[in-house]
Amino acid sequence: MFADDISKIDACITIETDEAIAAHAESEHNDTESRNNDATDAERKNTAAPFWKLCSAKDGSMSASENGALLHSSYNPAREAEAVVAHSDFQGCTAAVFYSFGLGYTPVVYAKHFPNRTLLLVEPDALHFFAALTVLDWTPVFSCSECIIALNCDAHTVISLIEKAGGVSSCAFFSVLAQTAHAQQYFDALKSLVERNKRKDDINTATLERFSKLWLRNSCINLDAYAKYDGVRIYENNAPLPFTIVAAGPSLETMLPYLAQIQKRSVLVCVDTAIRACVRAHVEPDFIIIGDPQYYAYRHIAGLRAPSSVLIAEPAVYPAVFRFQCRKLVLTSSLFPLGNWFEKRLGQKGSLGAGGSVASNAWNFAYLAGSREIYCCGLDLSFPQKQTHIKGSSAEESFAILSRRTHPIETQQAAYLFSAGSERGTNYNGNSVLTDSRMNMFAWWFESRLAACSDAKTYTLCPEGLAIPGIQIASLDTLLAKPCIDEQKKSFLEKSEARSALPSYKDFAAACNEFSSCLDALGATAEKGTRTCEKALSGNIAPQKALDELSAIDSAILESSVKDAAALVFPTERQLEKRAQSAPHYSDAFRATIARSLLIYTELLRAIGEYKKYFNTVL
Predict the structure, then answer these.
(1) How far is residue 479's CA from residue 268's CA, in Å, rounded to a whole number?
(2) What pLDDT digit, counting tens, does each position of 24-37 carry?
């Protein structure tokens, strides 16, 4: 029995050993086949994307290199992306912009974490994008609420997409040098434009903090202008004629003797800073544009008259502007929320945009009127021969008035030259010219606008100024060789002015009363919010009940038609943070949240008070 048992056990061992050997052999075969399949798959993908060398990371996932540089971690690409995304989030972030993306780990992870945000994927080479789709599962990206794929788009188009996504201040940006190296020049140019936009946002914030009360005061004083004056939209698409923009750069001096002849061959649009030079040359422009609400801007036209000119004004300009003697005064759409509110009820005036420089408004007007052939003179955006303005301008007169023995004109001009971070640029002749960061910003606006309006051709008659991509040199002789268009201009003006459609004073009065009532209602809602916050902080109301009440109050504020108008004199985010630091601090999260809400309601009440102080004078 024992021997039989031994032989059975031996047989069993032999059978099991044979099965194990066979299984091991099959496993070896499968592993080899799997490795061969993996190799075949990698070879196939490498063939589809010859610019990448695909490889396996330590965790078994796919990684890649391009031109010898790793695009992702060689250990764990997904974990690397998780860490990057975790450190990218900030308060107020609503979108993410990816400057290329390698195989796509970071946008995929971002989409998983923030499916309700906008994703903007920027890739100038379509092959890189489609190759990435063959490697990873991009389902989370295409499942998010909004995904914008910018393939082979020019940098200015990408900037406009970023603006539509909430602006640079609301976007998280992702960029890896190895992933952008295949189009480094493109991404460098794009990053430069984004940085300019960031500076623009900073400038806008600083300007709002400094001038918001002035804008409010002027807007209220000038409010009846909406019922008195037409808007620039009466000229829309009525003038497929050449236009010439006259700016106040030093090079304008060379054009002054020819302005009268230029005016006969084009529609002459003069910015406020150049009007004195035009009057000195005995030329009354067809149009004069003024947009700055400050008193010093009014001084450019103070004491002058142009009975043959049309004055185009932003509704929040210094009130004395409306006393300027001209043939006709028309308004642009307001840049400020109070004006926007009234235009929705009384009719749009016509937007000329906001490019920082009144010259940009002049260009926009020419384009709005229908011109696709636009000439510029005096648009230097620089300091040719270290001159700041054309001789005889109001700025030069101010230097002369303020000069004294210890503070001569030369000292003031030097301060102006270097007040905004002087830089070197290149003029249209390829020579170096002195400029500054402020004027570079204006030049960038023109560059962006010209790229977006490619159907218009823009020329400069003064090549001494800072060269702007999209603007070509034109000789004065070319313009002066054109036929006289006096009759066409006359027809253009008559046809445009026949479009006049002013609201009645009855409608204007009704809009004023509606605004006042909505402002009172918003103030009552904010007062209710402050009372609820005070009760919550003192413990006189249950926390959940307080949160429910505040939620209803916030909804009522967001539904108010005048909330945006009140925002004009509401603190900016950085002002709000500064005031929050001086307010009482609470350790528990509930009280800290309530204290923040109390600060917001209090500031909203203060903003409404500012409005009432000026708006009540209108009623």
Answers:
(1) 13
(2) 444 444 444 444 44
